[in-house]
Amino acid sequence: MFPTFADPKTDFVFKRIFGAEERKPLLIALLNHLLELEGPHCIRDVQHLSLEQHVAVPELKLSIVDVKCTDASGRRFVVEMQVAKVEGIEKRIVYNASKAYVMQLRSADTYPGLCDVVGVTICDFELWPDRGQAGNPEVPMLSRWRMQEQHSGALGLSQVQYVFLELPKYAAGDEPQTVVDRWAYFFREARNLDVVPSALSEGPFRDALEVTRTATFTPEEWEVYERAKMAEQDARGALTVARQEGVEQGHKSGEISGKAAAILTFLAARGISVSAEARTRIEACREPATLDRWILRAATAASADDVLAEPANPG
């Protein structure tokens, strides 16, 4: 039996909601709500910065889905959905936003022409899990970050800013009140709903939920969605295997060797042969972030070479 609504955290559905030109009002509403913009400061219009989100069957990325856009002032937004917590993810987020800032430069451009970049990241895990004495998160569900002078507290160097929505920190139950709570409720619960709840029955929340209604999917779109969900489950399974192997192997040869062993074990379990050259490269790698990336790829790659292939334009 098909679910009534699809999971908006998957690549295909996320871009179906926020990456389509005809649904720009949903992206604008999400940005205004998460950036807490009101009145004259509201974003009125955006332009998508690339056509990749319009591809009918996009490459299924396992740890991140994103939509990039710019507003009338030139300010750029990188809206990301992070579904898997891998090592170095904070650096990955900073890199992606910084790259969006740097890539504005062309041969004839000058530094004064650079526009601000805001990285908006929705996490399906707790990026900052620490709790205070009362048990409340030290960092709230919606957090905003920018540079601050450490002696005076003055704010400055605002060219690159960050906004995070950590979905596991949602605590409003079935009665979300604020617009931020409603977005968190939508991302967390859409796939579990059978009908449109009152909390999502108006405005952009209802429109976003309707986009996820599986009855509107073509057979081809449903197949892409199922592939995305399977890839996500395989990726999470790969991380679980990696952690287990890392613990078991860690007592013998350390965390790095444990990750390498996890990759080889996972490929073997899927019946994928590994050449001597590929095995040597995996076992010789000493970069945890690279090994984590290979672990995720091992979930769906057709060969060991696909696991080790380096993209032409990473990130």
Q: What is this structure's SSE topology?
A:
Blueprint: H1 11-18, H2 24-34, E1 46-48, E2 64-71, E3 76-82, H3 89-102, E4 117-123, E5 142-145, E6 160-166, H4 179-189, H5 203-211, H6 219-269, H7 276-284, H8 288-297, H9 304-308
Structure characterization notes:
- The chain is an alpha/beta fold and 315 residues long.
- It folds into two domains: 207 residues, no CATH class; 84 residues, no CATH class.
- The chain has nine helices and six strands; from the N terminus they run ααβββαβββαααααα.
- It has a six-stranded mixed sheet with strand order 1-2-3-4-6-5, with helices on both faces.
- Helix 2 crosses helix 5.
- The chain starts with 10 loop residues before the first helix and ends in a 7-residue tail after the last helix.
- About 4% of the residues have low confidence.
Q: Can you summarize this structure?
A:
α6 crosses α7 (276-284). It is built from 9 helices and 6 strands; from the N terminus they run ααβββαβββαααααα. It has helices at 11-18, 24-34, 89-102, 179-189, 203-211, 219-269, 276-284, 288-297, 304-308; strands at 46-48, 64-71, 76-82, 117-123, 142-145, 160-166.
